[in-house]
Write a structure and sequence with these properties.
Helix content: 25-40%
Number of strands: 5
Largest sheet: 5 strands, mixed
Strand order of the largest sheet: 1-4-5-3-2
Radius of gyration: 26 Å
Number of helices: 6
Structural class: alpha+beta
Distance between the termini: 52 Å
Shape: elongated
Order of helices and strands: HHEHEHEHEEH
Amino acid sequence: MSHDDDLELFQQMMGDVKPIHNDLVELNKKHQATESQLAKREAAMWLADDNPEHLSVDHAPMIKPEDIIEFKRDGVQDGVYKKLRLGKYPIQARLDLHRKTLKEARDEVVKFLKQCMSMDIRTVVIVHGRGERSNPPALMKSYVANWLTQIREVQCAHSAQRFHGGTGAVYVLLRKSNDQKIETRERHQKRMG
């Protein structure tokens, strides 16, 4: 067969084929937040609000002393959360809540996180204890876990690795400050260009 024969055979086989006019796929991926998610977002407080009493000392969903605290906001990358969970970020500050009342602990947590935000500290550990001897068990741990979900600057939290206190402590990753966001953007632009 010659080249001309191949071309003629190809054109015969493709005679009734019509060209595709639109080769783009339309993705309809719209995430709809549930009513409870929207309510939680609305109820979350900003540390700048200066009202720690927004965080309740009257009620929190109770967890057990050995339970793992897990919390991640929408938009936090899985890799970032995994790195926090595994204790791979350097701990920049630490708060110990042993021997504190719930009200003292709440005020300390808010004050501590505000101070960390003002100093551009992002990764902290809060030691709340396992609460095996408290009545009810894990009282402080339950309240700390609940408070962290209500503070908007908290991006994610996870019970610490054993070498940082295990289930008696929690890693907290705070939101980046505007200065840190600009610095990260500039660093990425330098890599790209």
